Amino acid sequence: MTNYNIGSLFKGMFRTFQHLVGKKATLEYPEEKYIPRKGYRGEHRLKKDEQGRMKCVACFMCATACPAECIRIVAGPSPWPDRDKIPVSFEIDLLKCIYCGMCEEACPCDAIELTPTFTQIATTREEKIYDLQKLMNR
Amino acid sequence: MVTKDVLYKLVVFLATVGIAVGLVPIMTIVERRVAAFIQNRWGPNRVGPWGLLQPVADGIKAFFKEEFVPARADRLLHFIAPMLVFVPPAIGFAVIPWGNQIGSVKLQAVNLNIGVLFMMSVLSIAVYGLAIGGWASNNKWSLLGGLRASAQLISYELTLGLAILVAIMMAESVDPQVIVAKQTRGILSWNVFGGGNLLALPCGLLGILLLYTAALAENNRLPFDLPECEQELVGGYHTEYSSMKFAMFFMGEYVAMVNMSAIVTMLYLGGWYFPGITNPADHSWLGGILSVGVFMAKTFAILFVYVWIRWTFPRFKYNQLMNLGWKGLLPLSLANVALLAVVGVFTGGKP
Lengths: 138, 351
Ligand code: SF4
Ligand code: SF4
What we know:
Radius of gyration of chain B: 21 Å
Order of helices and strands of chain B: HHHEEHHHHHHHHH
Strand order of the largest sheet of chain B: 1-2
Shape of chain B: globular
Largest sheet of chain A: 3 strands, antiparallel
Strand content of chain A: 15-25%
Structural class of chain A: alpha+beta
Oligomer: heterodimer
Mean pLDDT of chain B: 82
Number of helices of chain A: 4
Bound molecules: iron/sulfur cluster
Largest sheet of chain B: 2 strands, antiparallel
CATH class of chain A: Alpha Beta
Low-confidence stretches of chain B: none
Radius of gyration of chain A: 24 Å
Helix content of chain A: 10-25%
Helix content of chain B: 55-70%
Mean pLDDT of chain A: 86
Distance between the termini of chain A: 70 Å
Number of domains of chain A: 1
């Protein structure tokens, strides 16, 4: 004999009604942006010191630490007396990057950092390779 | 004057047809939005304000799709089937009393004194559309869908008829006007509350429950939507239909739903009567429009429950469906009729 448990039917309907009036999980993307939590590892940036100079000394620590091997640095002589080298070119391939944050950990000068920027827009592969200019201006 | 009356009747008739066809797009958007809300989504909200123009976009899309008839299908039957699904429920609207009368004009397209019987017979024609559609498609799965539809509708028609019979017994008439008029003596005179006889209250409550369950099965709605399913039947009786023909099946289903809700409202929930809002003796324009509003509000409440149920319950297996129909609902509805008859005899022959 089938168990006709009418009460549980109403219980189920009450539950779905709660969802009907409840909070919605959908994020309406173009109007609402997703704000990641603090400490989220998104796009990179290169920091500047108090005088507005880049902090990076082209020590290659980040490129060595990077498990995805997506950082390419070309070093050149420094114009300032307090350091030997600065990067002439600094490229991060964000398509290869796994956003692990190892580069940030490895940097002795606290020069590279992952920002909490979640949304990245690019129309070609080349655009996803961030160069020195782009990383500095972020 | 005769011509004036004919003119009024024509207006009511056209309005009825308008309601029948116009409610369908509204229902589709309501269905999709409620479905989304229950699943914690927003649903279609991009076309027009709050997504209200989505049905228009859907309609345009359906019109521009390719019209496809499978090879070796029966072209004539394939063509007729969607109409057979859509037209009978639309005809059923003719005998629904939408409101109180305005002046001497009754807000009912056809004033038929056997209206309820007419409606039942017309509504059951729709199953031919499904069965023919399944047959004409030259596709085994479609055929199975059509067969399931016919078996299901035949099984549940009995319960539906017996549940309607309860309301007819309470009103002692099959004329929609009389049935509604008997329910305008206060909220306790609604048939769901026993039609003015408190001893018949359980009959009324059970009656509407049975009627509603049978209505769900009649309209192939979840949890009884066995004729359509992706898992076993690749879609159902409409697998081989595309474009406007498919839309016609779809619309037919919704028209039948609206029709069934109107029947439930009329038979059990007092039609256009709501205490404090509509007055049966008030034949003015305002009163008439208010009564139509009340009828619509009740109908929409029932339609909402359709959608609500659809997104709450899992569907039945086919044997469970048949078990529930024959072993559960049918004896219950027979007992309900018998109980009401006994109550009627013991309360002076007047249930
Ligand atoms: S986040 Fe990880 S993968 Fe990306 S550049 Fe830094 S070390 Fe390499
Ligand atoms: S580890 Fe820091 S200082 Fe060294 S190259 Fe990378 S970013 Fe520059």
